[in-house]
Recover the amino acids of this structure.
């Protein structure tokens, strides 16, 4: 049995967050465990706005202690952290154990946070978490924020963003062009260090499926990479498998009473 661990927020509808991560792990045949950092709940009485509730650092540390003592996972995904206090404790916990892979989905903003708090969180994430990452999976917005670029309009722009984010510490970056990338295809670019060789730059492209965002795509993509790495795949193959799963999940998206569809990992 292979094990994958996630440290992330809860999203009660099941479309994103730790719920989506654990479903992805299960779908890909790894044993998943998780530690909650915050609880985000949509408010259906107020335009499905976000309500954000952080988990106390002590409770996060207790969850980490139990999970890592039970199964000794070597591969971990970091999702939404939410506050500088949470980032402090998670960074300390990550440094307390050896890891083969640390996959960071750099969630920079929760709409339920105050702008000042969000900025403090962004800065703490860049300073304390990204240097511990082996793989970072920013979306278009996050890649712009982390790289300092003004636009991502070409494959070379995505690669340059990946190289700039690499300079913050991680050995590999997968920049997701997503629905915002010009043209008919959803394009992701992997930039990865190769000892003794120039960095690997590999492009993954599939036709876009519609023009609307689907909840959970980013969470599922990073979680699928985590699961495949836990099973021993090299990173390019893990990215390839993750993109295939996300593409299939978007094709078979789930619609409910939310103003957006959610990805189905079981597709």
């Amino acid at each position: 049995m292979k094990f994958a661990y996630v440290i992330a927020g809860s999203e009660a509808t099941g479309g994103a967050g730790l719920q989506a991560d654990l479903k992805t792990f299960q779908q890909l045949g790894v044993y998943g465990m998780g530690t909650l950092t915050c609880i985000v709940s949509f408010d259906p009485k107020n335009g499905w706005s976000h309500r954000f509730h952080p988990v106390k650092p002590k409770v996060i540390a207790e969850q980490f202690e139990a999970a890592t003592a039970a199964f000794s996972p070597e591969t971990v995904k970091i999702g939404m952290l939410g506050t500088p206090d949470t980032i402090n404790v998670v960074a300390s916990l990550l440094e307390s154990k050896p890891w083969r892979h640390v996959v960071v989905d750099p969630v920079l903003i929760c709409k339920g946070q105050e702008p000042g708090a969000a900025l403090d969180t962004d800065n703490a994430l860049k300073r304390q978490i990204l240097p511990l990452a082996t793989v970072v999976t920013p979306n278009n917005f996050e890649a712009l924020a982390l790289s300092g670029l003004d636009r991502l309009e070409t494959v070379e722009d995505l690669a340059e963003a990946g190289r700039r984010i690499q300079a913050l510490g991680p050995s590999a970056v997968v920049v997701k062009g997503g629905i915002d990338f010009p043209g008919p295809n959803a394009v992701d670019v992997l930039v990865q260090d190769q000892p003794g060789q120039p960095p690997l730059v590999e492009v993954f492209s599939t036709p876009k499926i519609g023009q609307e965002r689907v909840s959970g795509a980013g969470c599922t993509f990073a979680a699928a990479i985590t699961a495949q790495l836990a099973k021993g795949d090299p990173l390019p193959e893990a990215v390839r498998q993750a993109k295939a799963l996300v593409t299939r999940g978007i094709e078979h998206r789930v619609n409910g009473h939310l103003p957006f569809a959610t990805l189905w990992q079981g597709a």
User: Anything to note?
Assistant: The helical segments are 17-27, 57-71, 84-95, 115-129, 140-147, 155-166, 217-230, 235-251. The radius of gyration is 17 Å. The domain at 3-251 is CATH 3.40.1190.20 (UDP-N-acetylmuramoyl-L-alanine:D-glutamate ligase).
